[in-house]
Target: MerR family transcriptional regulator
Amino acid sequence: MLMKVKEVAGLVGISVRTLHHYDEIGLLKPEQTTESGYRIYSEKDLETLQQILFFKQLGFPLKKIKEIINSRSFDREEALRVQRKMLLEERSRLDNMIATIDKTIRHAKGEIEMSDKEKFEGIDFSHNPYEQEARERWGDEAIDESNAKIKQMSKDEQKRMGEEFDRIYRDIAAVRHQTPDSDEAQAAIKVWYDYLNKIGNYSLDAFKGLGQMYVDDERFTKNIDKYGDGLAVFMRDAMAEYAERNTN
Model:
């Protein structure tokens, strides 16, 4: 069923201006536009909008949402499972906070006593759990193992490793204008995969997850893009393609 922008806004409960903004920043571009310039949304567009709003409700900025849903490795069903898990955790946290508020009211009335620790139960200012979930699923173990091996190297060994990293990144940057699934890109990414497994133990899933981290973590993106604009995104897509091709 096709819907006009006002119909979508009314259905979802957001403003037409918000939908226009999503279109302008490339977050949600409707599949069709009439000759008069009216936006027409398909069922697929509505599914994408649902994902956007789920992520937004969970506290993700629009820039991060755009990166996630535009990733070649994005899986809608997997995202829904992770979002469900996060919402259940959030519901549990809110239930704990409500219980703490109820106890605080009773404490204020003199009905019960509360310890200082009890006064802050359910309050959690930890970082975004989705990114932690991704790290746990895709390769903290491999990253930690690599870091441990690097620390054991001599200064000369670390210098040579740095030079090898530099050479590989430059070779990948040289083909970044190709499509990530091109033979040239895949050959360059294979060299990176093989080298990582000399200093660590990266499964294909971990390799794919590491590529996603290159985009999700601004520190990675900044350092990688020094070799060429857009290299981090290119590597993520090429690494995802390599993992998918080589998974039995």
